[in-house]
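Annex B. Sample input.
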Amino acid sequence: MRISAKADYAVRAAAELAAAGDGVPVPAEALARAQGVPHRFLEVILSDLRREGIVSSRRGARGGYVLARPASEVTVADVVRAVDGPLVYVRDERPADLEYGGAASSLLHVWVALRANVRAVLEHVTLADLAAGAVPDVVRRLTEDEGAWYNP
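Annex B, continued. Sample output.
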């Protein structure tokens, strides 16, 4: 599985909004600067997040972006789906829509299990968790194995 730059930037910007506090508007330029992401690209991402109901925008001198829901109710999965669509797909299809035959027939179970595990992580981490600098224990435990930090 690959996390796109768009999804990475979206989650980072949303975490900044969560850290800013409820109802405190943050200009896109300030979000981009805080996370070292390209401002123009972030504007496109924020538009996607607004369209999907993750953030809302306020105009004016003290305008900017705010989370549309409490940070504790927005998961990383919500943000990733808002900008990239389904969490796991194979050849631009959801695993449940695929069919395999012959020696590859059990491969569908691998893709569905992968999706279940990705969801088990991304749907349990909220923006409030990220803003607090922590993740749920179930996710943290997955990082305790030293091998988790390296690609073979």
